[in-house]
Design a protein that fits this description.
This protein is α+β, with helices and mostly antiparallel strands. 37% of the residues lie in helices and 31% in strands.
Amino acid sequence: TGELFLTEVVEDLHTKRPTVMCGVPIYSDGVLKGVAGAGMYLDNVEALVEDMDLGESGQACIVNQVGQVLFASDQDDMRTPFYPGRDLHSRVDEALNTLAMMAENHESGVMLLELNGISKYVACSPMTTTGWSVFVILSQEEVDAPTVQLQKDLDRISKEAAAEAARHVKTTTILLPALLLAASCTQEKKS
């Protein structure tokens, strides 16, 4: 087909580093003449995922086109569903099945899912060259925290403004009769 082909991620025999082999068929006049290929170490991809700053609860992972986690920010935490080698297809967890299908279908989007009993936003974006997908997972509580704080601040500001307005009304209510009385007295003296 003339398209780039990538192997699964494997551990290099000599260096033990994560590696993929890639190849592209070479055609001349429609006849296969050979394959141009090369191996690529994926240290940079692995480091990129591991080093992402995703707040307190954030996780990131790269999932291949068959729903298997290749790299994850929590490399050694087996309690999370996102550890290298994990197949996201699950018979019991529909949320993980949804993520596996997103990776397989090269979909992008954001959705709110229940993962390990916690509501989490999951953002997915396909990597067109490799056919893999990048997932970023953040707790709903952490994502919504700025909005919740904004609402609290607005409520406080609104109460303060209402209290200030009430003070002005009270002052005006007290001063207005006195001003009217003074104006009335001034009018009587002139007459």
